[in-house]
């Protein structure tokens, strides 16, 4: 690269005349750099920056995708405050997050411990746990619809071995949310693998020292493992929360009654925020309202994430440094 | 410069390649076909697939052979989202397509559909021959924006074996229907439903049809009318005679175990539901998945003599998007698809009703079991359809949720429909 920036005297004089500050060769390499970065630049502005700004503008308009938007000021936001389906979808989503996030963390951390035990066939178990994450969510969703069927499904048949008569998972409003969380947990393998990597990083000396001090397995977990993996836990909690706040595919597939129909489950219990946003945008063609909803979701997500980050000072440990 | 990796010529070349690659990526998918000389190529994108798509392809071949000016290319694309996005850009990907009657008003209001009136005249399509209830849905602000190729009506289907066993005659009045439902509903020792008197294929279509049968109406010129007295009476009737009879929880339990719609496990086909209100497509699927089933069909019972032969009509429609570059040619092909012989060939495939009333007497349909009951209903003065308005989709969702509340015993008919009225204020105008 130094070759490129070396200045030749005659070149400098011509440059002065042009009034430019940088040598031509530097300028050239700058544009070459830009050219190489252009796929990202075009992608970023075309696929992220522009749509984000446009949706901000649309959120203050009445826009139906086909005709030019009409400025309506804060109407969409006001309408949202009075729309009880909006509140219902937000409540459904928060309930799912409150149920799902702790379960995901607990199961992933517990499972990672099991996968970390040195036993025969360990790689196989790891692969099997991760396998559902590879299956497309829609395929998994349809599979679970069948598994959860009251009459033909395997889940209730399995429960009946233990004398439990299973609920109508997808028809009783109280059971639809556990059903959704169950289907999401099916792909917990991804989170588990990250924990597994974190567990490998826990210094062995600490366990040994704790054992010498007479700490049992539970104490060792509480005083050694948990603090050491806490930065990873913070990451997992935030990622998992955001995923739950935007959950769409699982409830959409589980609630669907017929193809190309809008369904939100019994008593609208499966209507999540993202589903209602989608309905407004692509079924009712209320793009303005949907854009406003998207911005509210963004702000809610931001606030929740900041709260988690603020709380992290109390429970996340970044080693002794 | 000799040792530099980026020699001038190479770096320029690489830069050009990088820019070109980006440009190609950015432009991918924006290509469009065009033709100047020779026959015009028309793109016909349809939502149909399977047997309907197959028969459509033979119809397209016939059309292409019949003349030299237009070549139609058919594409089966059942994704409604794709259809919408294609119509939202200035350059569409198709010249003619199909959808359902209830979307016409909404799309026409947004300027997506090309008005067809001048083509109806130039192609001399006789609108008087089409089922009036279906044509109503095709209009917006006095103009026609789509035309039906096949129509559907709802009637009462019954399982002959179960009715005979219970000693019940096919009902003709709402009181007889209530009586039949009671006699045909069987619960086991544990109180669980083992046989249901009347089922609903879909709560929304069943209860809106019942609304019409009780003389109700779901909208008028000024918009939705969910609390029309006839509608309340119908939903109330359903709650008292179907839901309360077995208990809402019990009914929900039964519905939870129902198999896939129109499959061999479909509750009507498997004999777990004695009667059901559904459309003529049942005839074709019954002979396929439940050939043993002995079933009949009759008009929806009348709440009063002047409401005899009430039914709901829905339709499959053809339209030309505003962004089509070949509207004249598309209209010619549209007119061909709607011609009596072609319509007959198409509607026969899945046992649908033809949109032209002159075809209803055709011998071609005589092989379809009980076809005439559905066909007769089409020309009935009490055949109605849901308004096709800009707010139709929102209205349907809210009605569906209200009916769901009623069927689950969460709400009474009047309260549930009152709630829909409060929702209508935010609807798209």
Automatic annotation (TrEMBL), chain B:
Gene3D superfamilies: Periplasmic binding protein-like II. Residues 1-28 form the signal peptide. The keyword RNA-binding does not apply. InterPro entries: SBP (IPR006059). It holds the Pfam family SBP_bac_8. It comes from the Bacteria. SUPFAM superfamilies: Periplasmic binding protein-like II. The keyword Signal applies. Keywords: Signal, Transport. Belongs to the bacterial solute-binding protein 1 family. This is ABC transporter substrate-binding protein. It comes from Paramicrobacterium chengjingii. The lineage of its organism: Bacteria, Bacillati, Actinomycetota, Actinomycetes, Micrococcales.
């Amino acid at each position: 690269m130094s070759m490129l920036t070396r200045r030749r005297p005659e070149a400098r004089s011509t440059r002065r005349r042009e009034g430019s500050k940088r040598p031509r060769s530097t300028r050239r390499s700058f544009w070459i750099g830009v050219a190489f970065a252009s796929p990202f630049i075009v992608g970023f502005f075309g696929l992220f920056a522009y749509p984000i700004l446009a949706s901000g503008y649309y959120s203050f308009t009445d826009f139906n995708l086909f005709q030019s938007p009409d400025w309506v000021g804060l109407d969409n936001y006001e309408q949202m405050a009075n729309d009880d389906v909006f509140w219902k979808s937000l409540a459904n989503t928060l309930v799912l997050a409150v149920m799902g996030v702790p379960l995901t963390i607990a199961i992933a951390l517990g499972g990672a411990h099991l996968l970390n035990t040195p036993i025969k066939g360990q790689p196989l178990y790891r692969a099997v746990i991760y396998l559902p994450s590879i299956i497309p969510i829609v395929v998994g969703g349809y599979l679970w619809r069948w598994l959860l069927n009251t009459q033909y499904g395997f889940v209730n048949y399995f429960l009946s071995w233990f004398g439990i008569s299973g609920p109508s998972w997808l028809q009783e409003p109280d059971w639809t949310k556990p059903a959704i969380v169950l289907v999401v947990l099916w792909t917990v393998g991804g989170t588990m693998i990250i924990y597994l990597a974190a567990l490998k990083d826990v210094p062995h000396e600490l366990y040994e020292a704790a054992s010498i001090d007479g700490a049992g397995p539970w104490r060792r977990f509480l005083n050694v493992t948990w603090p050491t993996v806490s930065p990873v836990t913070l990451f997992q909690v935030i990622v998992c929360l955001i995923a739950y706040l935007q959950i769409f595919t699982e409830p959409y597939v589980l609630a669907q009654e017929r193809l190309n129909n809008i369904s939100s489950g019994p008593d609208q219990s499966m209507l999540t925020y993202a589903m209602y946003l989608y309905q407004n945008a692509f079924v009712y063609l209320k793009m303005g309202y949907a854009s406003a909803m998207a911005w509210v979701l963004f702000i809610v997500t931001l606030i929740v994430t900041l709260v988690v980050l603020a709380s992290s000072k109390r429970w996340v440990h970044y080693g002794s440094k | 410069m000799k040792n530099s990796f980026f020699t001038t010529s190479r770096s320029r070349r690489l830069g050009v390649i990088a820019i070109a690659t980006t440009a190609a990526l950015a432009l991918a998918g924006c290509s469009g076909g065009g033709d100047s000389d020779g026959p015009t190529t028309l793109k016909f994108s349809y939502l149909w697939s399977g047997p309907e798509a197959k028969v459509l392809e033979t119809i397209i071949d016939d059309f292409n052979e019949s003349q030299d000016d237009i070549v139609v290319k058919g594409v089966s694309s059942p994704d409604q989202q794709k259809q919408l996005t294609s119509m939202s850009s200035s350059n569409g990907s198709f010249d003619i397509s199909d959808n359902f009657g209830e979307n016409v008003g909404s799309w026409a209001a947004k300027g997506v559909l090309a008005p067809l009136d001048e083509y109806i005249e130039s192609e001399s399509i006789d609108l008087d021959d089409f089922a009036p209830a279906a044509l109503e849905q095709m209009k917006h602000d006095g103009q026609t924006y789509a035309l039906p190729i096949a129509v559907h009506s709802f009637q009462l289907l019954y399982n002959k074996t179960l009715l005979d066993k219970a000693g019940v005659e096919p009902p003709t009045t709402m009181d007889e229907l209530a009586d039949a439902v009671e006699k045909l509903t069987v619960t086991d020792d544990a109180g669980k439903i083992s046989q249901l008197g009347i089922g609903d294929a879909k709560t929304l279509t069943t209860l809106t049809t019942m609304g019409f049968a009780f003389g109700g109406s779901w909208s008028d010129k000024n918009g939705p009318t969910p609390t029309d007295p006839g509608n309340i009476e119908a939903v109330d009737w359903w709650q008292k005679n179907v839901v309360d009879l077995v208990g809402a929880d019990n009914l929900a339990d039964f519905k939870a175990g129902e198999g896939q719609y129109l499959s061999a496990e479909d509750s009507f086909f498997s004999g777990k539901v004695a009667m059901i209100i559904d459309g003529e497509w049942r005839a074709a699927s019954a002979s396929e998945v439940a050939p043993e089933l002995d079933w009949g069909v009759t008009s929806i019972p009348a709440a009063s003599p002047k409401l005899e032969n009430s039914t709901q009509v829905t339709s499959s429609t053809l339209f030309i998007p505003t962004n089509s570059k070949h509207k004249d040619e598309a209209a010619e092909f549209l007119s061909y698809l709607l011609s009596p012989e072609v319509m007959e060939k198409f509607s026969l495939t899945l046992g649908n009703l033809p949109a032209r009333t002159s075809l209803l007497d055709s011998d071609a349909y005589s092989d379809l079991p009980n076809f005439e009951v559905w066909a007769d209903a089409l020309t009935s003065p009490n055949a109605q359809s849901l308004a096709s308005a800009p707010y139709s989709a929102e209205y349907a969702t809210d009605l569906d949720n209200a009916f769901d509340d009623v069927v689950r015993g969460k709400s009474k008919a009047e309260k549930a429909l009152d709630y829909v009225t409060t929702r209508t204020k935010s609807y798209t105008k």
